[in-house]
Structures are given as C-alpha cells and as structure tokens.
Amino acid sequence: MTVKTAIDQDKLDALLGKMVEDIGATISAPLLVIGDRLGLYRALAEGGPQTPDQLAERTGTHVRYIRPWLVNQAARGYAEYDPASGTYSLTPEQVLVFVEEDSPAFVVGGMETMVAGVMAVDRIAEAFKTGGGMAWGEHYPGLFRGTERFFRPGYLANLTTSWIPSIEGVVRRLESGGQVADVGCGHGASTIIMAEAYPHARFVGSDFHAGSIEAARERAERAGVADRVSFEVAGAPEIPDVDGGFDLVTYFDCLHDMGDPLGALKRARAVLAEGGVVMIVEPMAGERVEENFNPIGRAYSAGSAMLCTPNALATGGNGLGTIATEAEIRAVAEAAGFRRFRRATETPLNRIFEARP
Fold first, then answer.
1. Which CATH number covers residue 29?
2. In the chain, which residues have pLDDT < 50?
C-alpha cells in the first residue's frame, strides 16, 4: 500500500530549480574547457568587444558554434553582452578567472579536471557496487593537466610566501642549502616553485604516475632548475634516500589520494634529517559532516568520490579521501611516529599541517 505524503510545492519548486541549475552547469562544463582550449577567452580578452562573427574569424572557428557558446557564457556571467552593439567582452575580473593562468583566481584547470573525471562515470559506477578502484593513471589525460593548472595558482600565491614560512625553521634551512622531497609531485608545479624560491636547496620530486614525471622533467628543464631538481617514478612509501636526509618532506593535495597514507608517512619519517619536518597540504574540509555543506565541500566531496577514493582503493585501499577531518589526518601522522602535529595555516581551499617526530 502506497502512503501518500503531502507535497510542499515551494520546496519542490526550489529543488527543481537547483536541478535546472545543475543540468545547465553540467552541460556547460565542457564548453568552458573548449573555450580555454581554443583560445576563445584569450581572444575576447585581447581583442576587446566582438560580435560572434568577429570572434569566429579571430579564432579560426565556425560562427554557428560560437553564437551559442557566447550566449551560454553570458547567461552564466562568464562574459558580458552589449545589446546595442551585439558584442561580447570580458571584464578584468573575468580575465583573471579564465585567462591569466598565474592568477590566484584562475580556476579553469579545476573545470578541466572535473570534465576529465566525469568521463570515467561508467567505471566509477561499477566501482560503487564492487568496491574496486581506478588508479590515477587510468583516467582521461585531461585530468593530469587540469589538476596542475587548478592547484598551481594557489601554490604560486601561497607556497613560499605563507605556507613554508608558517613552519618554524624551514626557510632558514632551505635558504642555506637544505634538501626537499616532494611526494606525489604530479607535473612538478610545487617542486619547481620551491626550487625557484630557494636556489641553494636541492629537490627530489616523486610520483607513481610515469607520464606525470616525464612532464615534470620537461617543465624543470624549461624553468632552468633541472640542475637542482630531479624527478623519480616512485610510490609514496618509496621516497628515494639522500645523504644526510631531507630537511622537508611535502605532500601537496595528495596524501588523501594514497592507498597507504600510513606507509607513506612512515617512510617520510624514516628519510627525515635531524630536525626535519613534514608539511601536509590538504583540501579544506570540516570537522563535522555538516560543515562540508557548502560549495567547497560539494566540489571536494565529488572529487573524492570520482577521483581520490577510486585511486586509493586501486593502490592499497586505506585512503583518507578529500574531506578527511583534521583528527583523521592527525591520527595517521601519530600512528606513523610523529609526536608533534598542528595546523600551521590555511586558505579558503587548503589546510596546511606540520608534523614532526
């Protein structure tokens, strides 16, 4: 027997409104990636107000696609439209978000990452039922490029200006020629930023994804730091040894992805120099479930289900997940032998932890 329940029409309408927004956001996400890939945003930024025909001519694209693309962008507030002239343009703020890759506001890489993740929906749906995993390297390649482009602006803005200085004694060590292990370095953005800031220090970046390490080596050559930076294909529990040990071991937005975070931190403790420290940068998350009921929590929990948890289950099965609490991260660090653990600083998107033996 079906029990009839009274429907609150206002609540239903509000829920449907959210769904319409999400449908629009979902189908618009690849359009943002296309706009970035084809240089449409940059052409708008550099060319000033343009009609669809002018933008199509400027970018070598077909106007039949450019017209709805521009309407889509203006409808979401990603571009401006002038009805009098029929032209579209970008504000200075929109340029920072969609064009300037070194800007802290640049988030196109995040959208590129999410679009790449969605392409694994069939595989992840099956994993929901079986408990299986999907390793990082099995995803669509746009995931690797997008992840670097999403996190790099935050690293540029904060890594050497506030995150490292928030950990006592580290700046002095690196300025005088310390050694750093950057674990889970991906394309090497964090490693290279540190190397450029501390020219007397030496750096070893490691990641289990061979394609990312190849890209990191190429970037180090272009940045002119390859003489002080090396990149190795290695899992987190396999940090390479160096004479004298490491003054700093870093995990940038990656410890939660690992199938064996305890093993990773145990290895980090083993390779530390006397007085060395581990810096763990993790996504922002609340200590209580309901503290994640916000736009950041929504994005990070989705990333956890689609990307981070599958990788952890594929590579060991004991991952923390993107929305791990500080207490959970602390517990792993203490189990690995770190007696001192604290949140050194934070940003709206990240928590920065310090762990010492």
1. 1.10.10.10
2. none
Q: Say if residue 194 is in the same domain as residue 337.
A: yes
> Is 341 among the domain residues?
yes
For the chain, the helix, strand and coil percentages under 3-state DSSP, each to the nearest 5: 55, 15, 30
CA distance 145 to 142: 5
What is the C-alpha separation between 308 and 311, in angstroms, rounded?
A: 5
Q: Under a CB-based contact definition with an 8 Å cutoff, are residues 348 and 158 in contact?
A: no
Is 160:127 a contact under the CB 8 Å cutoff? no
Q: Cα 41 from chain centroid? A: 22
How far apart CA 309 and CA 302 sit, in angstroms, is 10
Residue 349 near residue 172, CB atoms below 8 Å? no
Rounded-to-integer distance, Cα 67 and Cα 81, Å: 12
* Residue 249 forms part of a structural domain: yes
pLDDT of residue 3: 57
Domain that holds residue 257: 114-356
What DSSP assignment string belongs to 220-268?
Answer: HHHHT-TTTEEEEE--GGGPPP-TT-EEEEEEES-GGG-S-HHHHHHHH
Domain boundary among 44, 75, 100: 100
Contact 261, 280 (CB under 8 A): no
Looking at the structure, do residues 279 and 197 belong to the same domain, yes or no?
A: yes
Percent of the chain with pLDDT over 90: 86
- Dump pLDDT digits (tens) for 98-128: 999 999 999 999 999 999 999 999 999 999 9
pLDDT digits (tens, 9 = 90+) for 140-189: 888 989 999 999 999 999 999 999 999 999 999 999 999 999 999 999 99
Do 52 and 127 fall into the same domain?
A: no
**127 plus 273 within the same structural domain:** yes
Contact indicator for 166, 352 with CB cutoff of 8 Å: yes
Supply the DSSP string of 98-117, one letter for each residue. HT-TTSTT--HHHHHHHHHH
β-strand partners of 233: 207
